[in-house]
Amino acid sequence: MNSTNHYPDRTVERLCTYRRTLRRCLDEGKPRVFSHELAAAHQATPAQVRRDLMTIGFSGSPARGYDVAGLLEYIGDILDPPDGTAAVLLGVGHLGRALLAHFTRDRSPLHVAAAFDITPEKVGASCHGCTIHPLDALERIVAETHATVGILAVPAEAAEDMALKLVACGVRGLVNFAPVLLHLPSDVTCEDIDITVSLEKVAYHARHAEPRVA
User: Per CATH, which fold does 9-78 belong to?
Assistant: First the structure.
């Protein structure tokens, strides 16, 4: 297996979701899993699952499926660097605190190494085990922690400026929770997560859903 291969974005996204299901299988004491089981958990087809696993070079058996522990380790070798991934969080408001709480509980190899906020009263405090720093310490701490990912939990009007500060420090991957499109260099990967849009979309479909028959 060559962990230096660069896989398409959608393939990487599916591998991340497969890993979550594989962890659940291990927790439940399930040693093997079939492609149709992974497909059912991720709104994919069994053929898509098999193509993804063939693409990364992992094989299974039609009669016995895939080895859960082996596949979990194999996907981890592709997705994760040996020492894990360090991230920094900008903005420790309600959303930022919730994100820090999530990463405290989550088993992801991505860990938030430091948080930043412009509010003087927050600086120096600890939130879910993560120290909050002033913004002027960003460059130093990104270098010290070797952070490659930045998480933006700041107001929309501050998001692009904060994103560019992270990029200037060497960060090349961003997760943006601000409801605004960022204009970034082409070598920076940015994942936009707009919770309001998701809620509005769900509300629209819920309003137009056929009523259930009792």
Answer: Arc Repressor Mutant, subunit A (1.10.10)
Distance, in Å, from the CA atom of 59 to the CA atom of 56, rounded to the nearest integer, reads: 9
Question: What is the full DSSP assignment across 55-94?
Answer: HHT---BTTTBEEHHHHHHHHHHHHS-TT-EEEEEE--SH
Q: pTM value?
A: 0.84
Q: Which residue pairs, CB below 8 angstroms and at least 24 apart, start in 132-135?
A: 132/92, 135/90, 135/165
Q: Are 94 and 34 in contact (CB under 8 A)?
A: no
Assign domain 85-198 to its CATH architecture: 3-Layer(aba) Sandwich (3.40)
Asked if 56 contacts 15 with a C-beta cutoff of 8 angstroms, the reply is: yes
d(CA 15, CA 51) in angstroms, rounded, equals 12
Instruction: Write out pLDDT tens, residues 33-76.
Output: 999 999 998 888 999 999 999 999 999 998 999 999 999 999 99
